[in-house]
Amino acid sequence: MTTAPRAATPALPDAQTVTSVTHWTDRLFSFRVTRPASLRFRSGEFVMIGLMGDPDPRTGRQKPLLRAYSIASPSWDEELEFYSIKVPDGPLTSRLQHIQPGDQIILRPKPVGTLVHDALLPGDRLWFFATGTGFAPFASLLRDPETYERFDRVIVTHTCRDVAELEYGRQLIASFKTDELMVELLGEDALAKLTYYPTTTREASPKMGRITDLLRDGTVLRDLGVDAIRADTDRAMVCGSMGLNTDLKEILEGFGLREGANSDPKHYVVEKAFVG
After folding, report:
1. Per the CB 3.0–4.6 Å rule, which of 3, 71, 226, 254 could disulfide with 221?
2. More confident residue, 60 or 250
3. Tens-place pLDDT, residues 196-210
4. DSSP code for 250
5. Please, what sign has the CA dihedral across residues 64, 17, 32, 28?
6. Which stretches within 61-103 are classed as H helix?
7. Which of 116, 110, 24, 100 is nearest to 68 (CA)?
8. Which has more pLDDT, 183 or 194?
9. Alpha-carbon distances of 131 from 83, 101, 128, 157, 262, rounded to whole Å
10. DSSP 78
11. Where are the alpha helices (DSSP H) in the chain?
C-alpha cells in the first residue's frame, strides 16, 4: 500500500522529506524523498542515509545512525528513491520501516559507488546480477538511457526467496512499457534490448534456483540463447549478499572477466557497500 504525502518542515541535519512509502512485503519497502537541489550523482551510486539515534543516557546527546543505501531512482529523477529490507532488531531499519510521508530522514549528499558505467569497458552485453534489495542500484541504471546507448542487450537477473519479494523489480520493469515518460525517455528500441530473468530459491515459481547454480550448470545461458559469457563481449554488475558477491566473482573470473573500478575500467564490478 502506498501512502500519500503530508507537508513538514525539515529539522534534522542534512534533512530530506519523505514523499511516499510503499510496503511490498512484511520484509521489504521502498520510499521516496526530496532531492537536494545541489545533489549530482551517477545512476548506480549510493549515499549514506539514516535517522537520529537514541539520546545518550549520560549526556542526552544524539548521534546520526547512518547506513549506505543505493539510490534506486535514476540520475535525472527530481526525487530520490530507496529500496530497503526490514530488520526487526536492526538499529536503523527497525525504525526506518515506520517512516511516513512528511517525516524527515538524514541524507549525506556525497554519492559514491562502483556500479557505474564509468567502471566498465565498452561491450555488447550487460548483465545485472542482484539478490534481494541488491536490485536497488539496477532500478536506477535500468531507467537511465545511457545503459541502452552503451549496450546492445541488457539482462537483469533477480533472485529472491519468495515470489512476492520480486514484485518491486517486476512492477518497475513492467512499467517501462506502460509509463508514457519511460516509453518516451527510453524508446521502444531500448526496451527491446532488455531481458528480465527472475528466480526464486524457496517458493515455487517459473524459474527456481540460485543464479550462481544456474550460471554454473549453463541453465541461464540456454534459457536466454547466449552461447557463452566472454571478456570481449560481456560486462557485468553484481549487488547482493557477501556470499553472492564472492561466488559471482569466482564465476565471472572463470569466464575470463576481470574486476574493474572507477579508476581502472574492466569487465565487471561488485558493490561492496551492500550487505543484505
Report:
1. 226
2. 250
3. 999 999 999 999 999
4. H
5. positive
6. 93-96
7. 110
8. 194
9. 12, 27, 10, 8, 23
10. S
11. 93-96, 136-141, 145-150, 167-175, 180-192, 211-216, 219-224, 242-254
pLDDT in tens, 32-65: 999 999 999 999 999 999 998 887 778 878 888 9
Given a contact cutoff of 8 angstroms between Cβ atoms, the answer to whether 132 and 276 are in contact is yes
Take residue 174 and report the three cell numbers written for it: 513492467
Coil/strand/helix, residue 21: strand
**Residues 6+ away with beta carbon under 8 Å from 58:** none
Instruction: Report whether 239 contacts 218 (CB < 8 A).
Output: no
* DSSP line for 122-185: --SEEEEEEEGGGGHHHHHHTT-HHHHHH-SEEEEEEEESSGGGGHHHHHHHHHTTT-HHHHHH
Cell digits of residue 191 = 526496451
Asked if residues 120 and 263 have their Cβ atoms less than 8 Å apart, the reply is no
Report the alpha-carbon angle 33-34-35, nearest 5. Answer: 115
Which residue do the cell numbers 513492467 mark?
Answer: 174
* Neighbouring residues of 14: CB distance < 8 A, sequence distance ≥ 6: 106, 107, 108, 109
Cα angle: 100, vertex 115, 271; to 5 degrees: 80
Q: Virtual CA dihedral for 37, 39, 43, 47, nearest 10 degrees?
A: -130
Amino acid 208 reads M
- Burial (CB < 10 A; 0-12, 13-18, 19+), residue 71, is buried
Neighbours of 145 (CB within 10 A): 14
